[in-house]
Design a protein that fits this description.
Layout lengths: L6 E5 L3 E8 L13 E7 L1 H11 L4 E4 L1 E3 L3 H13 L7 E3 L6 E7 L5 E6 L7 H7 L5 E7 L5 H14 L5 E6 L15 E4 L1 H6 L5 H8 L8 E5 L5 E4 L5 E4 L13 H14 L4 H16 L14
Parallel strand pairs: 1-4, 1-9, 2-7, 5-6, 9-10, 10-11, 11-12
Antiparallel strand pairs: 2-3, 7-8, 12-13, 13-14
Helix pairs in contact: 1-7, 7-8
């Protein structure tokens, strides 16, 4: 079944990425000059919305934001410039926007992230009071370990009220086993490599076979694995694979995973098979790694 009329909602983090580009990864107590420094909008939900909107998908975003500060003004200007609807976001006076300090190593494109946030997390009441479910056909939840219980409640609320009309996807990325409680609540589950390895799995197939029985009977599960590519498991238990793009020079891997998630959701939402969908996710994530940031000069469409 293809979905085109309604919107996709991204639920999760919006933050400011403060990025420093270095010609090597620093050693402790080292003093040297950086090659570049810039601001960029960040947060898993914000990043995936940025990609989906460029693919022609109308997106809404719900996250917690400070009432007003220069950093949040910068982020909101970015969202508005892309046409991402953020009117459902919850504002909190007296808070600061979450900040990620990011070091990008020019030698290999790796990113090291130091995250800071004192902002309160989204609640079920926030979600119920703002989100208009009849405008949506897909909701993607970022599995945030600081409010796993509330995320589960939001997923239950969507399932109870719109079981047959809204697809629910969730990302398990952070190293917290409590996120496993979210698996039965989703139709599409993304298992991050870091999450899998933290729980003792050294390859995506073993991870998928271990966790897929936790999902409901028609769910699919996906595990991207860097330069290996990605594997997915269909509701039947059949495993499919997609190779990563051969990159050559890597410029910037920041938000490659969020790009993969967005591109895969885009393809699945169009009714593409799982194998084709994760292949498109790998393709777009690879293109992202060969450029700085998430604004694509040319974005291939999976038609």
């Amino acid at each position: 079944m293809q979905h085109h009329q309604r919107k996709v909602l991204l639920v999760g983090l919006v933050c400011l990425d403060i990025i420093t580009v270095c010609d090597h990864y620093p050693v402790e107590d080292e003093d040297f000059r950086a090659d570049d420094h810039y601001w960029q909008c960040g947060g898993n939900a914000c990043n995936s919305a940025t990609v989906l909107q460029q693919l022609g998908v109308e997106c809404n975003l719900i996250a917690c934001l400070p009432e007003k500060d220069p950093q949040s003004d910068y982020v909101l200007k970015h969202l508005a410039s892309l046409g991402i609807d953020y009117n459902w976001c919850i504002t909190h006076p007296g808070h600061q926007l979450p900040i990620s300090t990011v070091l990008i190593n020019k030698q290999n494109g790796t990113r090291t992230i130091i995250h800071y946030s004192k902002l309160v997390e989204l609640t079920l009441d926030n979600f119920q009071s703002r989100v208009q479910l009849n405008q949506l056909d897909w909701i993607h939840f970022e599995g945030r370990r600081k409010n796993i219980q509330a995320i589960g409640q939001m997923m239950d609320y969507v399932r109870y009220h719109h079981q047959s009309t809204i697809k629910i996807s969730v990302e398990l990325e952070k190293k917290d086993q409590n996120l496993l409680h979210l698996i039965p609540k989703a139709d599409v589950i993304f298992i991050g490599k870091d999450f899998a390895q933290a729980n003792g799995y050294n390859n995506p197939i073993d991870c998928l076979r271990a966790y897929h029985p936790l999902a409901h009977s028609s769910a699919i599960m996906i595990c991207p694995w860097g330069d290996y590519g990605a594997d997915g498991i269909e509701s039947s238990g059949n495993i499919v694979h997609a190779d990563a793009m051969q990159l050559g020079t890597v410029i910037d891997t920041l938000a490659a995973g969020d790009t993969f998630n967005a591109a895969t959701i885009y393809a699945l939402r169009k009714g593409k098979p799982l194998a084709e969908s994760i292949s498109y996710g790998c393709q777009l994530a690879g293109i992202k790694c060969k450029q700085r940031g998430l604004i694509f000069q040319h974005i291939p469409m999976d038609d």
